[in-house]
Structure to design on (540 residues):
């Protein structure tokens, strides 16, 4: 059965190919482990460079969550016409709540509104002088998540104004616009910092691999002399780069987790003082995994660039 | 196996290392290349192992025109040549076994095949018992034999040796030369650069003698 033989040969070659990669994977790890101090220092630099943008990202994330709790800026107040009865107001509330761009609707009946006004304004006595409640029923409309941009809210406000029961619709677009503008700046800053620090990781890995290549010049020449292809020569350096990146990612993950843990209690104490149940958001499982992958990819890319640049110059003479 | 037609090599510095060299080596032959240092021996070996390419003429090795071989094919070409270096060029951070296994690893051989072939090669050079040692723990002669084992482990049809006995005493040198002779028995072509006249005479094989980059007719200058 020559065909079967050929197939088995191909399978063996594939198995051998993976075995070689696994061997290089373990071999490069062993080499790094034999120089723990310098390996750790390189990984630490990468780790810090990776941790900084992630920390900024978390800051923005938590800031938004906090702002979301404190602000009512994206909410719209709808004051219904005086003649709309309470069950009519309920029907309007249900209709509005059914909209895709609305998260939920809070109905504030006229008498509740009056009570609140009485309690807060200090005009209690003056209000008593009135025969009837001058306030209408009102709705507080919370836009759905992802529909809080200024133009979304403007559209929602227009739709609400078109309701026959609506008298006055109040929005605070100015505030939304300002907040979004600020958020945009912060987001771009994070993006910029991420790009810069990713470049720093590439440079650090690239430089480390360059030194490694210089230190192993003789070995590379020998391997090339006995027929090692460029890919074969490059492979251990690429794996070394991936290891550095992964180790850096792991350290960054550690730094971030430690930071969140350290800040958790003080933030909670502060939140309690503001009678809020806000808690600090950490890095989730998926973003954490993404951080590791990003580290590995940057390490691989950095070592690839260094290998492409410097291995070519190492030729037998 | 090897065929040179009117080959010249001029280095960028301007000096001509080889001029108008033509000769042929048949498969299974053992040929010595002799000459003083600077006569062009090293350049000749570099042309055959494709470390250098000729400026003029053509070098055919195993039917491959080295002047026309694209760079990406060079590694595969070199894998079909076993090279023994004067300074043996072993890797000192790994064992004798791993050093000898290197060409097979590069070739993508399976673990079983590697074990079998490496032990066969080490057996041939009489170092089977030292596979776990590191090269540094071996004598110079033993190191050179490890280098030879590495050169022959993938069973290349051509073996090229650059002053393989340059650092060895006469007794060891003869042992190494006899080893090379044994490889020709199984059809391997062997090209040895050497200036060990005594041994070359004793072995009585064909000699390519170079002087200032040119082929000098006649076998041994002393004979």
């Amino acid at each position: 059965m020559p065909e079967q033989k050929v197939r088995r040969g191909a399978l063996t070659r594939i198995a051998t190919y993976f075995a070689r990669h696994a061997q290089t994977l373990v071999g490069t790890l062993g080499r790094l482990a034999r120089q723990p101090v310098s390996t750790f220092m390189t990984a630490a630099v990468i780790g810090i460079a990776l941790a900084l943008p992630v920390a900024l990202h978390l800051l923005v994330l938590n800031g938004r969550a906090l702002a979301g709790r404190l602000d009512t800026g994206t909410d719209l107040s709808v004051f219904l016409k005086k003649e709309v009865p309470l069950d009519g107001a309920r029907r309007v509330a249900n209709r509005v709540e059914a909209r895709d761009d609305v998260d939920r609707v809070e109905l504030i009946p006229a008498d509740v509104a009056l009570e609140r006004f009485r309690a807060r304004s200090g005009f209690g006595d003056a209000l008593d002088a009135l025969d009837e409640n001058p306030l209408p029923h009102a709705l507080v409309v919370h836009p759905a998540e992802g529909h809080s941009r200024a133009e979304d809210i403007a559209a929602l406000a227009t739709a609400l104004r078109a309701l026959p029961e609506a008298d006055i619709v109040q929005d605070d677009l100015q505030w939304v616009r300002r907040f979004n503008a600020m958020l945009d700046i912060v987001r771009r800053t994070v993006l910029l910092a991420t790009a810069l620090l990713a470049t720093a990781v590439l440079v650090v890995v690239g430089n480390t691999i360059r030194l490694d290549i210089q230190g192993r010049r003789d070995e590379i020449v020998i391997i090339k002399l006995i027929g090692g292809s460029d890919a074969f020569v490059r492979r251990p350096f690429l794996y070394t780069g991936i290891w550095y990146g992964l180790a850096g990612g792991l350290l960054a993950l550690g730094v971030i987790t430690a930071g969140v843990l350290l800040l958790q209690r003080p933030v909670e104490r502060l939140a309690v003082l503001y009678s809020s149940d806000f808690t600090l958001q950490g890095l989730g499982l998926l973003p954490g995994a993404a951080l590791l992958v990003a580290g590995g990819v940057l390490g691989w890319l950095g070592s690839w660039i260094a290998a492409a640049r410097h291995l070519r110059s190492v030729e037998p003479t | 196996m090897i065929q040179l037609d009117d080959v010249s090599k001029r280095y960028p510095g301007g000096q001509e290392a080889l001029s108008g060299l033509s000769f042929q080596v048949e498969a299974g032959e053992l040929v010595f290349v002799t000459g003083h240092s600077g006569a062009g021996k090293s350049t000749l070996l570099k042309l055959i192992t494709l470390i250098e390419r000729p400026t003029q003429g053509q070098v055919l090795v195993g039917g491959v025109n080295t002047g026309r071989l694209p760079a990406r094919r060079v590694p595969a070409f070199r894998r079909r040549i076993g090279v023994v270096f004067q300074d043996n060029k072993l890797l000192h951070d790994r064992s004798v076994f791993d050093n000898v296994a290197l060409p097979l690893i590069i070739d993508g051989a399976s673990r079983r095949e590697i074990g079998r072939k490496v032990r066969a090669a080490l057996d041939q050079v009489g170092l089977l018992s030292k596979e776990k040692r590191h090269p540094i723990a071996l004598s110079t002669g033993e190191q050179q034999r490890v280098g030879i084992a590495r050169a022959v482990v993938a069973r290349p049809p051509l073996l090229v040796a650059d002053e393989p006995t340059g650092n060895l005493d006469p007794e060891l040198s003869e042992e190494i030369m006899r080893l090379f002779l044994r490889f020709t028995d199984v059809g391997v072509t062997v090209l040895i650069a050497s200036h060990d006249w005594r041994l070359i005479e004793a072995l009585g094989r064909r000699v390519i003698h170079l002087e200032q980059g040119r082929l000098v007719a006649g076998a041994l200058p002393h004979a």
